[in-house]
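Aim 2, interim progress. The first record below pairs a target sequence with its structure tokens.
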Amino acid sequence: MDVPSSLIDGRVLSIADQFNKQNDWNEHMQQGIEAMAERADEVMTLRETVAMLETRVNEIYQVKEVLVERKPAGRLKRSQ
């Protein structure tokens, strides 16, 4: 049974088209995965920065509390 060459050519072109579409899809997905990985790194950096800032704010509040405790009670009278 002979298969017409035009039918074979059509199938080859169809397979080639599917292959190209799959390659395009794979490339697009790879770019998406890379972008997500970059954003995950950015999120980790932001979390570390927030943790460091929270630590600094807590340290500042502790220093403030120490300074407030050292203030004399009441207002000092001004000399005239």
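The second target in this work package is listed in the same format:
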Amino acid sequence: MESKGKIGIITGAGPEAGIDLWQKILSHTKKYYNEAYKGDIDTPYVVVYSVPELGKVMSIETNTDEVWSHLKAALLKIDSEVDYFCIACNVLHHYSLQIQEMNLKSKFVSIVNVTRDYLLESNTKEIALLSIPKVIELGKFSPYKYLQDDFSVETPGSEEMDTLIRGIKIKGSENKELLNDFRLILDKIEAKVVILACTELPLLSTESINKVFVDPTDILAKVICMCAINHSQYAIVE
């Protein structure tokens, strides 16, 4: 029987997002095997590289080269250890083209592309995109800018999103003040479908909020889990 593929996770922007992704990969593994799940021996082989300097991507416009230097170094290290890798940060997918040009041995599974594919399959037409300012501005630093080709994209204010996400990184996702700020942002959103396109956002509770939330981290976890189990070629880059 062919062994399962090895998964790599690059995290650090922020580290909690990498933990969340790893937990969701485990969850999808258990769902896949269902009653046949045998415990530890059925869990995937996972390598996690947590690089603190990647956190500078919050100000990507002033740290573009430095962040890429750290990301490239992590990619070169993890490439020899895994078959499939992903990045637990939406905005770091700004570097997708550079990653493709590295011609790595391992296959890159992009959180941006799996999310877009999910939305296209769901026949959704109107969405709200929540993330850091440089992502929701849908300019050159936004890996989600191409969503505008297929969807009507609503975005909240950049300043309030920046305050919220930086707050989560420092105070944690269970901070009551931040949860209230999150709800106030959502109250102003007209779109029914909300994309949580920053890996800190799915850490917040969405209980009793009348929206359809799309968690790119969970979509990515399912796809890369299936890649590893079935050795599929879902290697997608920008």
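The longest strand covers residues 7-11. This observation will shape the mutagenesis plan for the next reporting period.
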